[in-house]
Design goal:
CATH class of the largest domain: Alpha Beta
Structural class: alpha+beta
Number of helices: 8
Largest sheet: 4 strands, mixed
Number of strands: 4
Number of domains: 2
Helix content: 40-55%
Strand content: 5-15%
């Protein structure tokens, strides 16, 4: 007979008081506690940088919801990170519009400059490179997003300039956005 181990995490011992209070607030303004799942994931990610398995179990416990349902929410949204990421996550749009306007050259410049591939993080933990199906800037393609900042009409030179400035200044890119 095979024994199946279960994982039980009491959210009181895992989530911070601030995280619990913020998640409880979100749950209080939703129709159901489960509806606060995505917001709860964002709260934990904002505080920890990503959502670990333990965080996921703790959130599910707090919201009294099925872990598999919450995992489905977490893996559906590409802005919820289920693995550690760098200080700045680069989302480069790989839509048709971006492909037609220089995506391949911009992507090659990023990969060469940072010496990483999709899904990888630089050794200094400053950058993680991810693809994104659409960033909503088709008329300004190619596009990338870092943090909450969007960058439009990218070229291999402009993208390297952005990454170099960020690396040299050691600041979040939201502060450098030219929106």
């Amino acid at each position: 007979m095979e024994i199946i181990k279960t994982v039980t995490i009491d959210y009181h011992h895992y989530l911070s008081a601030t995280e619990i209070a913020t998640i409880e607030h979100e749950a209080s303004i939703m129709e159901t506690r489960e509806a606060a799942g995505i917001e709860a994931l964002k709260v934990v990610q904002d505080n920890r940088g990503w959502v670990s398995d333990e965080s996921l179990y703790a959130i599910a416990d707090l919201l009294s919801m099925n872990v598999a349902e919450l995992e489905g929410v977490a893996t559906f949204y590409n802005l919820i990170y289920r693995h550690p990421v760098g200080q700045n996550v680069i989302h480069i749009c790989d839509s048709v519009s971006c492909h037609l306007t220089g995506y391949n050259q911009v992507l090659a410049a990023i990969k060469t400059h940072l010496n990483i591939e999709y899904g990888q993080t630089t050794s200094d933990k400053k950058f993680t490179l991810l693809s994104n199906v659409c960033l909503g800037g088709c008329d300004k393609a190619p596009v990338m997003m870092i943090g909450k900042a969007h960058y439009y009409h990218l070229t291999p030179t402009s993208v390297v300039d952005i990454l170099t400035k960020l690396s040299e200044q050691n600041v979040k890119l939201e502060e450098m956005s030219d929106e």
